[in-house]
Amino acid sequence: MSKEYNLAVSSSPHIRSAEDTRSIMLDVIISLVPALAVAIYIFGLRALTLTLVGVGACVFFEWGYRNLLKKPSSVGNLSAVVTGVLLVFCLPVTVPYWIPVIGAFFAIVIVKELYGGIGKNFLNPALAARAFLFSWPVIMTTWAAPLSYSKFANIIGGADAITSATPMEALHMGKLPDATLLQAFIGEIGGSIGEISSIVLLLGGIYLVIRKIISPRIPLSYILTVAVVTFIFPKGGIDGLTWMLYNLLCGGLMLGAIFMATDYSTSPTTKTGQIIFGIGCGLLTVFIRYFGSYVEGVSYAILIMNIVVWLIDKSTLPRRFGVNKAAKGGAK
Amino acid sequence: MSNSFFGGIHPGDAKASTSKEASRPLSPPSQVVIPMSLHIGPPCTPTVKVGDVVKLGQKIGDSEAPISAPIHASVSGKVVAVEPRLHPNGSMVMSVVIENDGLDTPDESITPHDGENLTDPEVLTAIIREAGIVGMGGATFPTAFKISSGLGKVDTVIINAAECEPYITSDHRTMLEHPDEVIAGIRILTKVFGLELAYVGIEKNKPDAIELLSKKCGDDIKIMPLQTRYPQGAEKQLIQSITGREVPPGGLPAHVGCVVFNVFTAYSVYRAVHEGMPAIERVVTVAGDCVNTPTNLICRIGTPLEHVFEAAGGFKLPPRKVLMGGPMMGNAQFSLSAPVIKATNALLAFSGKEDKNVSNPTCIRCGKCSEVCPMRLVPMYMYMYERKSDLESLEKLHVTDCIECGACTYICPGRLHLTQSFRTAKAKINAEKARRQAAEKAATEKTAKEVAKV
Fold first, then answer.
1. H or E element in which residue A197 lies
2. Partner B contacted by A324 (CB < 8 A)
């Protein structure tokens, strides 16, 4: 056996976990499918076609940009697909098809790739694009009533749908929405495409936590903060519990807390940092909902907190191993 | 007292292929190559020359340095070369090459020390030092020095039988096959510190060893079943799991009153004391997807790797990567002519089919690396600063605390070479420190000269 083998030498470790960026993104996509299914049921097939356009545009812009700049392709990691889905999920179903395309360009090229691509962007691409799309405020606030579509007609003529006030508009005026809490929980309400059904978003979140894609720290601290503040300070003389539940189940809170605020690139990596981030998002969300001129606060709350992620990480570094253990453990 | 360490991963233990394989002696090769560096510390100087006839167990290398351990002939025969040869660490190291006469004629020095006062640390450390015993778990720190430097500071003796690396079963087999010797060795290592109790940490994936040792040992040895989680057997993490104590940065286990010995070291101590046998052989797990018949072999120190793999039925696939040690911390070998050394607990051959490295590793800031880091570091930021050679920031993030366990690299979905970059970072920091010290020394000398002139 004196044969010489072509042996590779490298630094340890020599094995790696099966999980990679692509499998993580695939899990996120899987966790979003139920929300898409509900959206199609409530808003018609236009929810699906818009999502496909958004995803297609995101993948195209990422591929095109990196190809143009001769950078290694990254569309295989599926993160552009996730961005596409999340972008469309925070749009009304009535938007024309060019809206998700422009949004995709802004999200992928301006927010993500100009800063170096995945992991380098400091704003959530989908939410930043949504903020940018408010350059067309009327389009972005024309809402379809739930279950108001007629068969396939709305795939083409989205604007024909019956427009209605969303629950958030009622809450903004200090009134309770027409929908019952159960309707809000299962998603039979107006709102952005992917935000309406709290139950399926929660299920998606549980899936991600079980698969260890996200930690529950950000979603829990975010949702609990909103719950506590709205419970203590209800508006319009409504009792705290009812007011709190409507605030949790209506609008973009579940979508934002579970899928947007947990975006790796734009959230803290330390345990303490993640809790601070969640609380910050919760406080800002309620603040904007109560005092802002726009009815919903989730997306701006997260975008604002995105900006301070590095500061949070820097100031919440873990205690050094073997140092100050006694101080931390209290008396002992 | 059920503690746990921070972070950690579950790489899948892959031990099934050899955990039931009783270790069997490998017939010694026709030639052994024994490097003069088999321990941490200054290398030994050969005490034999070409043409000398040596006996099994005869001392062939020694050093005056306090942190050192002598080296013994692992076969009897004739010294045919004393020259630099390939060491498993990749460098050329002065080695003694012995042509095996096949007789295994034992040296006169091999006599049991039963009659001596073994609780006298001086007597015991002398026996252990002369037997060339080092930390057999892989660190190869000279055991006698570990004992003498820990005397008076140690209140807890811990035996490391965690064997947390995938594939390796050599310690597991040793416990199953030599439980009485292992226990006797543990008692020697406990009594020398004047202590009455030792803790043996064993991962729960070895229930048979836990049961056997629990049955055999008395009240003076406490078997601690530990969670199967890598790196349970890392020294600092084992101490934390068993005592809840954290070794301070840059400190030794003795700083928190602990001393840790590998279970194979305890077995070697028994053999040195009661059989007079120096450290000339050890159990090696031979496994990996290329190996025909994965097994455990008792190999003489200095046996070329190709001889070991041959005894395991050779290769069924051409190996792409040959590792000495486990897949998490083992050293990749580029030639099968390198010899088995005292730290060789496993030899693994992989075809590389499962290589998951990518051409453009990309951090997605998922934070999993810092979640699994047993030392509570922030690998993704350390990596970023290493890319920029920002040594100051690296020191602020305590890159020097990294124990190079590889958990971060294992878990990284972006496939970054994290551990490797921290090795580089540490080397850069050390080089910079040395440079600064040299500059300071030069400056003081210059000032001294100027003062002298005035």
1. none
2. no
CA B253 – CA B235 distance, rounded (Å): 8
Report pLDDT for A160.
54
Per-residue pLDDT of A195-219, as tens digits, reads: 999 999 999 999 999 999 999 999 9
Report the distance separating Cα B437 and Cα B292, nearest Å.
Answer: 53
- Per-residue pLDDT band at A145 (split at 50, 70, 90): confident
Asked whether A280 and A305 are in contact (CB, 8 A), the reply is: yes
List pLDDT tens digits, range A147-201. 877 666 666 665 555 667 788 888 988 889 989 999 999 999 999 999 999 999 9
Among B102, B107, B97, B127, CA closest to B35: B97
B370–A79 CB contact, under 8 Å: no
CB contact under 8 A, B365 and A6: no
How high is the ipTM of this complex? Answer: 0.91
Q: Does B410 touch chain A (CB under 8 A)?
A: yes
CA distances (Å), B247 to each of A80, B64, B223, in order?
Answer: 44, 30, 22
Asked whether the predicted pLDDT for residue A329 surpasses 80, the reply is no
Residues of A in contact with B323 (CB under 8 A): 14
A21-315 CATH fold: Ammonium transporter fold (1.10.3430)
For residue B374, list chain A residues with Cβ-Cβ distance below 8 A: 321
pLDDT for position A61:
98
Q: Do A320 and B404 touch (CB under 8 A)?
A: no
Whose structure tokens read 């972008």? Answer: A87
CATH 3.10.20.600 residue ranges for chain B: 281-350
| Percent of chain B topping pLDDT 70 | 99
A311 pLDDT above the threshold of 50: yes
What gap in Å lies between CA B329 and CA B323, rounded to an integer? 9
Disruptive mutation site among B236, B376, B415 for chain A (greatest number of A CBs within 10 Å)? B376
Higher pLDDT, B353 or B158: B158
The nearest alpha carbon in chain B to A9 belongs to: B332
- Chain A closest CA to B172's CA: distance in Å? 22
- Class for domain B24-275, per CATH? alpha beta
Query: DSSP state, B244?
Result: -
Q: What is the location of CATH 3.40.50.11540 in chain B?
A: 24-275
- Is the pLDDT score of A281 beyond 90? yes
Distance, in angstroms, between B323 CA and closest chain A CA?
9
Which candidate from B306, B357, B401 shows the least CB-CB separation from A321? B401
Pairing between β-strand B59-62 and β-strand B71-72 as defined by DSSP bridges: antiparallel
Give the pLDDT of residue A166: 85
The β-bridge partners of B224 are: B201
Q: Please indicate whether, in this complex, the C-beta atoms of A20 and B414 are within 8 angstroms of each other.
A: yes
Distance of alpha carbon B361 from alpha carbon B26, whole angstroms: 42
Helices B170-177/B207-216 angle, 10° precision: 40
pLDDT at B296 over 80: yes
Are B315 and B309 in contact by the 8 Å Cβ rule? The answer is yes
CA distance A319 to chain B (A): 7
Chain A hits for B362, Cβ within 8 Å:
21, 74, 77, 117-119
CATH of domain B281-350: 3.10.20.600
Residue B445 identity (one-letter amino acid): E
Mean pLDDT, residues A304-314 = 96
Any idea of the CA torsion for B361, B366, B368, B369, to the nearest 10 degrees? 50
pLDDT in tens, B365-377: 999 999 999 999 9
- Report the pLDDT averaged over residues A248-257: 96
Name the pTM for this structure. 0.92
Interchain proximity A13–B306, CB inside 8 Å:
no
Confirm if B42 and B65 have CB atoms less than 8 A apart.
yes
Nearest chain B residue to A120 by CA distance is: B364
Minimal CA separation from A218 to chain B, in Å: 13
